[in-house]
Specification:
The protein has 716 residues and is of the alpha+beta class.
């Protein structure tokens, strides 16, 4: 009895071995440390997308990272183009980016402390003036307040001033332009009063405004930094040095210098640096980074190991088969990053709103100033109202909350074993109302036991040769069941979707596939050599762990499951009865699957397709949303929106719940932002909000929607 076991980490490896054109790696990846709003995103992406050679440019606000896709792109040209619109850009290094973000946070805290200290001291003098200090005493206190406030405002307001100047010097606008204008106007008004012996000065208001704006900016920075990107977490798993075997000795070598074919020694407790093939007889590995399963996996000689795994057993040797950007770890991180950088309808709406914000708010503030001058003739009062309008209308909520929801959701799902490949996938998953499952390799695993002792040496070699040419789960299980058999030399190998593999061996046609296709009396897996009778290869399928829980969870969510399979009626019906699925379709072809799915969608259904085979690819691409297990064919994984990295299906309903929560929270954030502006703008225009109150309200609105976005982490 030969045991067949399919490890999710092993079957996930092809995810890294072939790269679809529509998932090409970015040509240029840069850090953009000065971006902080939706207006910044729109400006950068519009500039670069208009450049020759750039296919697309995507900004990740949470990571402050830019990915540029296209051919023959010069990094220096991209950096210069960004410089021309006011943004500094640097080649991305994850470690340096983390350090840069920490530095930004520390600088904000220092400026916040200085602003708070200066504000409290100036307020002491203001209290004395309000209490009745007059003439020389009042003038002295005003001068002292000015001496404290001017350097404090100039130092503490630098984050806003620098950003505003970057936009203005290239004749652009961003949300820091009105903020900087408000701070400078409040300070300038106060200085004018002091120099002209006025009774009132507003240094305390200017410092308070700066203080509360810095609170908002720091909380925004801290909150976004705490949204740990799944891509960044994966990057943190990379190993920088490896033990390369040279002349029988292990030599410490930078991972960047490794090439395919290098032999490596992996000590106990150390992460694997690159993808490779196990040369030692056995190894014990932790693949939780890829599968989400904490249980250790036992590997045999010749099996694949992936970068990021941890050696839990004795030291072992391996031969590198993929290095650098070709490793599983880098490929998976890239797919996660692509999803985080993708645009959905909510981010596009936020971009459009932010684009019209800057000119609109300046016109509104100017109009309020003119109107109040005409109403009461008090220029100071009118200027205060204009400053309040400038501040209170800041669209931080729109620019920050939506990306935070998507990033938090994608990171949460990756931790659960779901690799989301598209930014619009969560939107579409939230809308599904029926789920169609393939059977073999999706609801079941091609594993269990196989009795192949009856095969001759030639039959085993032909079977292994045909199976090695296919990525189907049954084929992989058959290869594992024949570890010692040599592979026959075959030519003209081809795969017949839904049936099996065929080739030519010594002038004869050989086939591996369904018994009915081979002309046999059995319907299971079989092998046919030329005109000889087909030989049955009994492989046993077992349901995936947690499949019962998953299907019941989908029913509870109003997404009834159906089974569409090319397998025989009796086999499919037996599994359906065991799982409680009423709607099944057996013995159907790939074309019939696609036709049935299209029919459902024409009837108004939003179909979720879950499949793994070549015959499922068209249906996966046509479905409203789609999921493929990591054991699926490359074509199926590329067509799917989400790749399931774990064998266990317990958490499958949580994918739908998180998607629905993401959509709901995004809508809530828009409602919060719209409600805030509907109330705050009239209040400011009517003169009921001072610049200080406006700063507090603006910061509170931004933090409210960001914290609301973080609720996706707690969806059960």
């Amino acid at each position: 009895m030969t045991m067949v076991a399919a490890c999710p980490g092993c079957v996930a490896a092809p995810l890294a071995l072939k790269h679809a054109e529509n998932h090409a790696a970015p040509a240029v990846v840069l850090s953009l440390p000065t971006i902080h709003c939706a207006a910044c995103i729109g400006k950068v992406e519009r500039k670069l997308n208009a450049m020759p050679g750039v296919d697309s440019a995507r900004v990740n606000l949470s990571l402050k990272q830019l990915s540029v896709y296209g051919d023959a792109i010069d990094t220096d040209i991209i950096v210069a183009a960004l410089k021309s619109i006011g943004y500094d850009a640097y080649p991305l290094d994850v470690g340096l980016l983390e350090t840069r973000q920490d530095t930004v946070g520390r600088n904000l805290l220092v400026r916040l402390a200085v602003a708070g200290f200066a504000m409290m001291n100036v307020m002491l003098f203001s209290v004395a003036i309000w209490s009745g200090a007059t003439d020389t005493t009042r003038e002295l206190f005003h001068l002292i307040s000015a001496a404290i406030s001017l350097p404090a405002v100039l130092y503490c307001g630098q984050p806003f001033f620098a950003s505003a100047w970057s936009a203005l010097r290239v004749r652009g606008l961003n949300m820091d332009v009105p903020i900087s204008l408000a701070i400078l106007l409040a300070t300038g008004m106060s200085l004018f009063e002091v120099l002209n012996g006025g009774a009132h000065a507003y240094f305390d208001a200017a410092l308070s405004l700066t203080f509360f704006l810095l609170i908002g900016r720091y909380l925004d920075h801290h909150t976004r930094s705490s949204v740990r990107s799944a891509a960044k977490e994966l990057a943190a798993l990379e190993v920088h040095h490896a033990q390369r075997i040279e002349d029988g000795n292990a030599v410490k070598t930078p991972v960047s210098s490794l090439i395919v074919g290098d032999r490596l020694l992996i000590p106990s407790g150390v992460r694997v640096p690159v993808d490779g093939r196990l040369d030692s007889a056995q190894a014990l590995s932790d693949r939780s980074f890829l599968t989400g399963e904490s249980a250790a996996v036992t590997l045999a000689k010749g099996q694949q190991v992936q970068a990021g795994e941890i050696n839990l057993g004795a030291p072992f040797e391996m031969t590198a088969t993929a290095v650098g950007d070709d490793t599983t770890l880098r490929r998976v991180a890239h797919l996660v990053e692509m999803a985080e950088n993708s645009r959905n309808s909510y981010t596009n709406l936020a971009d459009r709103a932010a684009r019209i914000y800057a000119p609109a708010v300046h016109l509104l503030a100017f109009a309020s100033f003119v109107a109040w001058v005409l109403v009461d003739g008090d220029v100071r009062h009118a200027l205060n109202i204009a400053v309040a309008v400038l501040i209170i209308t800041c669209p931080c909520a729109l620019g920050l909350a939506v990306p935070a929801v998507a990033t938090a959701a994608i990171g949460r799902l990756y931790g659960l074993g779901f690799l989301v490949k598209s930014g619009t996938a969560l939107e579409r998953l939230a809308e599904v109302d029926v789920a169609i499952f393939d059977k073999t390799g999706t609801l079941t695993l091609a594993g269990g036991s196989a009795r192949l002792d009856h095969l001759t040496g030639e039959q085993a070699a032909i079977a292994r040769g045909l199976a090695q040419a296919s990525d189907h789960p049954v084929s992989r299980a058959l290869v594992t069941a024949l570890p010692d058999a040599p592979s026959a030399t075959l030519v003209e190998i081809s795969e017949i979707p839904g049936n099996g593999m065929q080739a030519v061996y010594k002038g004869e046609t050989v086939k591996l596939g369904r018994g009915t296709w081979l002309g046999a009396s059995f319907d299971g897996l079989g092998l046919k050599i030329g005109g000889q009778p087909a030989v049955e290869l009994p492989l046993h399928e077992t349901p995936r762990q947690g499949v019962d829980v998953a299907l019941q969870g989908l029913r509870d969510l109003g997404v009834p499951p159906q089974i569409l399979s090319g397998d025989r009626q009796g086999t499919v019906r037996a599994l359906a009865q065991r799982l409680g699925v009423q709607d099944i379709h057996a013995e159907i072809s790939a074309t019939e699957k696609h036709t049935y799915l299209t029919k459902l969608q024409n009837e108004g259904h939003h179909v979720l397709m879950v499949g793994d085979g070549l015959n499922d690819t068209a249906s996966l691409a046509a479905a409203h949303a789609s999921v493929a297990p990591s054991s699926a064919l490359d074509a199926s994984r590329n067509a799917a929106d989400v790749v399931l990295l774990r064998e266990n299906l317990d958490d499958f309903p949580l994918l739908i719940r998180i998607a629905r929560s993401t959509s709901r929270l995004s809508k809530q954030n828009f409602a919060i932002a719209a409600g805030y502006n509907a109330i705050a703008i009239p209040v400011a225009l009517l003169g009921y909000a001072t610049p200080l109150i406006a700063a507090i309200a603006m910061s509170a609105s931004s933090i409210t929607v960001i914290l609301n976005a973080m609720r996706v982490r707690f969806v059960k």
